[in-house]
Amino acid sequence: MDKDTSHVEAVLRADRAQLLEAWMTAQLEAVTTRPDLLSGGELRVESDRFLAAFAAAVAEDDAGGDIDGPAWLDVRELLDDLSRTRATRGFTPTETAMFVYSLKQPLFARLQEALADRPAELGPTLWVTTVLLDRLGLFTTEAYLRTREDVIRRQQDELIELSTPVVKLWEGVVALPLIGTLDSARTQVVMESLLERIVETDSTIAIIDITGVPTVDTLVAQHLLRTVAAARLMGADCIISGIRPQIAQTIVHLGLDLSEVTTKASLSDAVIVALARTGFEIRRRAAAPS
Amino acid sequence: MHDGGTRIPILKLGHLLLVTIQVDMHDRMALTLQEDLTDRIVETGARGVLIDISGLEIVDSFIGRMLADLAAMARVLDATTVVVGMRPAVAITLVELGLELPGVRTALTVERGMELLPGPSEIEAAGTQEDRDPGD
User: Fold this and answer.
1) What residue in B sits closest to A196 (Cα-Cα)?
2) What strands, in cross-sheet order, belong to the sheet with B48-52?
3) What one-character-per-residue DSSP string does chain A give?
4) Residues 6 or more apart from A248 whose CB is under 8 A from it?
5) Considering CB atoms only, which of A196, A235, A278 is closest to B135?
6) How far apart (Å, rounded) are the C-alpha atoms in residues B108 and A231?
7) pTM higher than 0.80, yes or no?
8) Bridge partner list, A206
């Protein structure tokens, strides 16, 4: 422990109860407080636990404020936990980081009082403290972002799984209703599951329905054509259905060439074509017997 | 018909030739196959060629082009080529390589491939023509 943090340690040890009160007041008065998401009682428990861990870490630390060191393990875990819960509750990154930053003002006030007669030491002490708290604040932001990224990643995985069902429509006919934008990663998944289903169901026709694809640009069209080409290599013909009027216009304006592929406006038209090619037809039953 | 283990056997099935590729091909084998197949088409007067690549797990651009070349050569000799049994991974790789084999007909199984080829005009190929193309 070096000399600069010794005053911080002394203040934390001697004045913790008052510091907690002042900090609570500061936090509750701040514009970033969220009483709707976090009750005052919970905030008090969290603040108290943080002060305890912070005091212990400052006392133990001999690496000069390196918050990645072993002395700060408890503080890191606590902040990690705190950021995680706040991220899932809907706090913004700023509101989360302000938990740490709001400690500065009350802590500095206490330090100023304690070092009133030794102004020469006040400067370095404040500097060390502010650097420490800044690092901890940034740490909460990083933890917050990690949580958010986890959520995004999980949602992406779910989306990919949800959006590529290949359904068997009829003997030898599979359909792939596409929903959402097609990017390269999704095309890969879509292509794989389509081709695998073609093999499993021994299909000769695959209908790709793009009713749920919001826009078709050159890239999406290219992905579609690649899927069609891969299916053709396996011996299955593709029909693209569900082309909305705007999309038909976009395709022509962009100069995309879909002439190699059978295209239909609606899925039902595509089904009829597919059945005709496999040798079936749909007919209304004769009127009820007299 | 096939001398040595490094050659791909070419089987005659009535008016068709069946080439079954069951190992991963290296380049020399591919070139030998091109020679053998053109020879056999001329020799037998075959009108259709089935290339079964269900055993092929790895393709590169050379093999992809070789398949396209085989089909083109057969077409010059008035025989239709059908590539059958391509695996999903192989199909994806070929498309990624930009080898979409235009002009080559494809089918999922040998049976389906046979349905695509011209029926036997004078040669016997019993059992294949009865249940062909129920839709026509």
Assistant:
1) B88
2) B10-13, B16-20, B48-52, B80-84, B105-107
3) --HHHHHHHHHHHHSHHHHHHHHHHHHHHSTT--TTTS-HHHHHHHHHHHHHHHHHHHHH--SSS-TTSGGGHHHHHHHHHHHHHHHHHT--HHHHHHHHHTTHHHHHHHHHHHTTT-HHHHHHHHHHHHHHHHHHHHHHHHHHHHHHHHHHHHHHHHHHHHT---EEEETTEEEEEEES---HHHHHHHHHHHHHHHHHHT-SEEEEEEEE-----HHHHHHHHHHHHHHHHTT-EEEEE---HHHHHHHHHTT---TTSEE-SSHHHHHHHHHHHHT----PPPPPP-
4) none
5) A278
6) 10
7) no
8) A174, A238
Q: Do A234 and B135 touch (CB under 8 A)?
A: no
Mean pLDDT score of chain B: 81
Task: Give the count of beta carbons closer than 10 Å to the beta carbon of residue A31.
Answer: 6
- Please indicate whether, in this complex, the C-beta atoms of B135 and A231 are within 8 angstroms of each other: no
Does the distance separating the beta carbons of B86 and A235 come in below 8 Å?
A: yes
Nearest Cα residue in chain B from A274: B135
The string of pLDDT tens digits covering residues A75-96 is 888 888 888 888 888 888 888 8
Query: Are A233 and B134 an interchain contact pair (Cβ–Cβ within 8 Å)?
Result: no
The per-residue pLDDT for range A234-285, each reduced to its tens digit, is 989 999 999 989 888 888 888 888 888 899 999 999 999 999 998 888 888 8
Q: Which residues pair with residue A169 across a beta bridge?
A: none
Query: pLDDT tens digits, residue range A108-127?
Result: 888 888 888 888 888 888 88
Q: Can you tell me the mean pLDDT for B48-74?
A: 88
Task: Give the distance from CA A13 to its chain's centroid.
Answer: 40
Kindly state the tokens that stand for A111.
């330090």
Q: What is the pLDDT of residues A145-157, one digit of tens each?
A: 998 899 889 888 8
Reported ipTM exceeds the 0.90 cut: no
| Token pair of B51 as six digits | 């290339």
